[in-house]
Amino acid sequence: MHWDRLNDGDENASCWMRVVQSDTGGSYGAVHVPRIGEEVIVSFLDGDCDKPIVTGRAYNGAKKPDWHSNGILSGYKSKEYQGSGYNQMVMDDATGQNRVQLYSTSTNAQLHLGYLIAQTGNARGEYLGSGFDLKSDAYGAIRAAQGMVVSTHPTTGASSQPLDVRDANSQLVNSESVIESLSQASETHQAESLKDGYDSLKSFTDATQNSVSGAASSGGNTAGGGAGSANAFKEPIMLFATPAGIAMSTQKSTHIAANEHINLVSGQSTYIATGKSLVASVSEKISLFAQNVGMKLFAAKGKVEIQAHSDGVEFTAQKTVKMLSATEKIEAAAGQEILLTSGGAYIRLKDGNIEIHAPGKVDVKGSQHAFNGPTQTDYPLPSLPTSKYDAAMQYLYHDDEPVQGAKYTATLSDNSTREGVLDAQGKMHLENVPVGPVQVQLGPDVRQFARKDLTKNPDFKGEQLSESDIDSLLAKHGGA
Fold it and tell me: Which of 80, 90, 292, 304 could form a disulfide with 85 if both were Cys (CB 3.0 to 4.6 A apart)?
């Protein structure tokens, strides 16, 4: 105390005093501990000098508030202990420019809401924008365990539901219709179906709609609020939605990965432009289908090469097929036979012989006809590569214990067979196998049978097995 001129000015100058807080309670409330050098207001309970209590703090000439002009800035600001950093929550009540800022000097992390301006201490600076700004000079993460939506679709007021995604859902349903109609047209013209992509998109769309009820009150006090239902997600999906467009930009690479399917659906056109190469490698097949106008494949420079390394190439057209060389020649060669036929007439080139047959007239005209002795030209045919792959499989019991030491016979796609035994992890590894399915016949586990009681089978569903459940069980335990 200023009037106590005999104390040493340390913690022994008085008894320890409680400090009044703005809100207090067991394990909740506000905590603002006065620091050395701050001016506090001390009262005495019941006027008893032995019962001092700190009832407040006050600014003074030495300790001034950071926000002191105009009377429109209020909030809380802390100070780093033995440092210059701080944390603050500013409420700005400027006319027509209301805002709230939650800020920390550590990594310059902040959440800025409302009418955004620059602020330095007591000074209100330039206009920065409107809405919210969440940023940090370090890292950031946003997580929601049951699903998340990021949307620029407008809401309908304070009572709008956070997961009201009807606008996005409507667009997804329209995309389903696009895929479904094009899939039907593709199948009609003997191209590949888009059914897997359609099913995947429909499953996602369905997951955006799920009505949930508010928590039922079991006692307590809800003041009559919190009842009713709201939309939620059936699965922890993430949905990005906007009525005006989405862009992703990076000076390096963009990566998209999916364990199942990737759907790209546009109501009009899809454009791909690349500064260098467009390279695609597909493990099974490529199917391209154009419904109305046609298909073009042009190369301004370089060759156009089409190769089938283990099967044939077919060109089929309802009308005319043209093969033109504008400045040089057309070469046709085959390892066994070339057959040209129309209307029952044919020319066959085979085994060094030429057959010219016709059910009608054979008309040969020319200024000269030369029938000399035999000669031949051996045309060089390329040797095409053949692919070999490795095949790895693991066989497990229903409780994920491996089948050990069992003999197996694997029949490959070229009808050759491989034999061996499973290792201690139930694994089989085959090297240099041809492309295609592998059928495996598996013998018994070499270990002595030991019964295990009460082992749970996660695949057991009683009599409620669907067709997909049966397919899943066969894939896991069928040994093929």
Answer: 80
